[in-house]
Amino acid sequence: MIQIGDITVDLGDPLTQGTLAAAAILILFLILLIAAVRAAARSARNVEEVAQQVGRMNQDVGVLGQGQQQLAGTLQSVSETQTSAQLKVIQTVESRLAEVQLQTNERLAENARRAAHALSEMQERMRETLHGSSEKTTQSLTQLQERLATIDKAQTNIEKLSGDVLSLQDILSNKQTRGAFGEIQLNDIVSKALPSDAYALQPTLSNGSRPDCLIHLPNPPGPIVIDAKFPLEDYERYVNAEGKEAQLRALKVFGAAVRTHIKAIAEKYLIEGETADGALMFLPSEAVYAELHARLPEVVREGFAARVWIVSPTTCMATLNTMRAILKDARMREQAGAIRKELALLHGDVDRLGTRVENLDRHFSMASKDIAEIKLSADKAGRRAQRLDSFDFEELSPEDGGARVVPLRSSDS
Fold first, then answer.
1. Given 33, 139, 165, 179, which residue has the most CB atoms within 10 angstroms?
2. pTM of the full predicted structure?
3. Tens digits of per-residue pLDDT, 13-48?
4. What are the extents of the domains in the chain?
5. Taking phi first (over 0 means left), then psi (-120 to 50 degrees means alpha), and beta for anything else, what does residue 386 get?
6. pLDDT tens figures, 79-94
């Protein structure tokens, strides 16, 4: 139950419930009516807006129709303009083609004239060129003749040189002349490396053998023998051999020839008490020397064992330079006594020079003292002479040695 003022409402009463239900329905109806009115108002506004849009659309359609009409007119004018432009273009092209054809004809005529002129100039140049070529050809033929003459002279020189080469080949092919060739080369090397009194050529040893050169070195090691050997035939057989087996056979023969030379030098030129305990075997060819060391090192070692050293022109020069240094050192040692004697004499001379310098200094001091006294006496004499000149006798002082003045005598006495 609900108490509203003086009225009491019973909610369990059906009449009350029906009344409340009717009131609720009425309120709901009013709410729906208000919502419907508002929706109608919104629909009306929307209809007005749609009507306005439709009106604007109709205006746009009208404007579009007017634009279509204007476009049609524009297309018509464009078509007319294009037609007139095409006509103008065709007329312009025809006119231009006529001008181009005229210019082409003029250019063709000008090119023809230029071609004719160029052809004439070319013909003229060709004539000049042919004339110049003829002169140059004549000059070239003259120079060619001169060069042929030079070639003939060169050919003559070549023939002469070939003759010299053949003579050198003849020299090298003969053992005796080849030995002389090695001796000459050895003589040239030794004469350039050592002074003339330091060696002897073809000396005779106590056993009757004659080596090519003997270097006079002091003991030790003593005089050293140099003998020139040239195993050319065996070397050429080795070089010209074809095939590995032939080369090996020729190499063995070449090594045997060198061993023979080494043995001969060791037996003939190593004399105890007369020569050094070693000798030099001179090979006048660098090629033979290089091949021997490259292919037969055992032969070189055998030479070392036999105290025979194999040298080429280059290594011989180096060895001789070393010997020259040894000779220089030995000669300096030989002169050491004379040098010491000269140094002793020089020391005595220096001592005497010192004594004489002291005497001269003493004499010089005494002379300086005498000169000072002489100068003092000269000063006194000068002063006296000055006083005598001025008759200043009264001013003579006792220090001057004239204390008394001698009076003048009268003419009566």
1. 179
2. 0.41
3. 777 777 777 778 888 878 888 888 888 778 778 777
4. 90-173, 177-334, 352-400
5. alpha
6. 788 788 778 878 887 7
The domain made up of 177-334 has a fold known as: Trna Endonuclease; Chain: A, domain 1 (3.40.1350)
User: Looking at residue 355, what is its pLDDT?
Assistant: 84
| Residue range 256-270, pLDDT digits in tens | 989 999 999 999 999
| Regions of the chain where pLDDT drops below 50 | 165-174, 176-179, 392-393, 401-403, 408-413
Structure tokens at 202: 């073809």
Dist CA 159 CA 348 (whole Å): 74
* CA distances in angstroms from 296 to 9, 114, 253, 258, 283, listed in the order given: 153, 85, 11, 10, 15
Instruction: Work out whether strand 213-215 and strand 224-228 pair parallel, antiparallel, or are unpaired.
Output: antiparallel
The answer to whether 271 and 207 are in contact (CB under 8 A) is: yes
Token pair 């059906």 is found at 14
- What's the CA gap between 44 and 361, in Å, rounded? 157
279-282 vs 308-311, strand pairing mode: parallel
Q: Are 189 and 212 in contact (CB under 8 A)?
A: no
237, with CB counted inside 10 A (0-12, 13-18, 19+), is middle
**Following DSSP, what letter does each residue of 118-156 receive, concatenated?**
HHHHHHHHHHHHHHHHHHHHHHHHHHHHHHHHHHHHHHH
- Token pair, residue 386, equals 């000055």
